[in-house]
Fold YcgN family cysteine cluster protein.
Amino acid sequence: MPPLTLLTPPLTLLTPPLTLQPPLTRRGSGKVSSEKPNAAAFWQTKSLPDMTPQEWESLCDGCGKCCLHKLLDERDDLPEDAPMQLGEDLHYTHVACKLLNTEQGGCRHYPIRHRFVPGCVQLTADDLDSIHYMPPSCAYRRLHEGRGLPSWHPLLHDGSRAAMEAAGMAVTGYPVTSDERDEPSEATIVTWPLHDCD
Ligand code: SF4
């Protein structure tokens, strides 16, 4: 494997690590309260940019994969802080942001996370062109790529994380360490964050 550099992504997306919304199960109802039985869900009828802030936030499954540090292969022809380019390999590590709750998923201090991790940026519709470096199972990436929500997504289970965890889609099912204890390095690279199913 060629030399690796710690990913310092574009300002518009993550400065590692990226922490997004807290887990769905800890946010309000955990389900789309206005949906009628059999009515098409908002994620089936609306594009991502057209969603309300509440709908947008509810898409986050709280998997925590975006809170893992990532590495890019060293690039000779780009500035060190250049955003990830399409076609570049992104390597996930098992080293997470110190704020990640590794037992329940999600950020332990989401509303005030910038006090502790100033570079943490919230994903918005303006970032969709860069979504290829979110994990393949991320709901925002899946919808942007026209793949829909997976059957295990908490929105389809009344906010429960159980199906997601059973499918191995959350960091809570894996050994994860904190960046307060470990440095992201080639030795910490893992492939499980790249798994997706359904
Ligand atoms: S990877 Fe996507 S779905 Fe998972 S926690 Fe991050 S933003 Fe939410």
In short: The pocket of iron/sulfur cluster is lined by residues 20, 60-66, 123, 134-135, 138-140 (CB under 6 Å). The chain has five helices and five strands. The helical segments are 42-45, 53-58, 113-116, 139-144, 162-166. Residues 8-35 have pLDDT under 50 and may be disordered.
